[in-house]
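Your task
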Amino acid sequence: MARRTKVYEGKAKILYEGPEPGTYVQYFKDDTTAGDGAKMALIEGKGVLNNRLSEYFMNGLNEIGVPTHFIRRLNMREQLVRAVEVIPLEVVVRNVAAGSISKRLGIEEGTPLPRPIVEFYYKNDALHDPMVSEDHILAFGWATHQDLDEIVALALRVNDFISGVMMGVGIKLIDFKIEIGRIFEGDFQRLVVADEISPDSCRLWDVKTGEKLDKDVFRRDLGNLSEAYTEVARRLGVMPASATPIVKPTLMN
């Protein structure tokens, strides 16, 4: 398929104009960043893994009635998605304390939380995606009360689905983040899960060993990121174990 006009480029993906009105082509890059871009590396094949893993989860969500922007995978690095109006929020669901919640509240990493906790972060790279409350969201018009109720319901359904799938292959879903977009159909609005679902956007720990199988491997210099992602794909039956990408680090301070 001929590539069209670039619409947007982020840290891990590029959006191109789609072949039909109301669609985009989402391209998964090999770039990996941490610490707001302070640490960077090119991990050859990561984009292929994330494309396939996101396809797996988005298809699964569509099948159980959780709407997403995903239409179909086009090739090893690209997928066709619906064009959506993205709500400027990262929606985070936490099952186990890790990362920023441990630092903020002094909870030891690995501590199970009493129930899944939903948090909101304002999507703004220049401000480092600050955490915001529902009052902020309503006051600045990013979403309505009805939107928030639906966003929380969608996030918890995604959590139930991914938790169950992962537990079935011996992986614990610690937390994840998603984005939500609006699709307008005539006079009606529908909220859908957008962006991606992959080890870039989830924390995944081996149930037995606690080994990290997510982007924390890169953030914390815990080993080979490509091997961690490939292990997730292998367990889910998404890609064969032999499809291990090559790491080509280009680190920046």
User: Anything to note?
Assistant: Helices lie at 46-63, 100-105, 134-139, 145-167, 216-219, 225-236. The two ends are 37 Å apart (CA to CA).
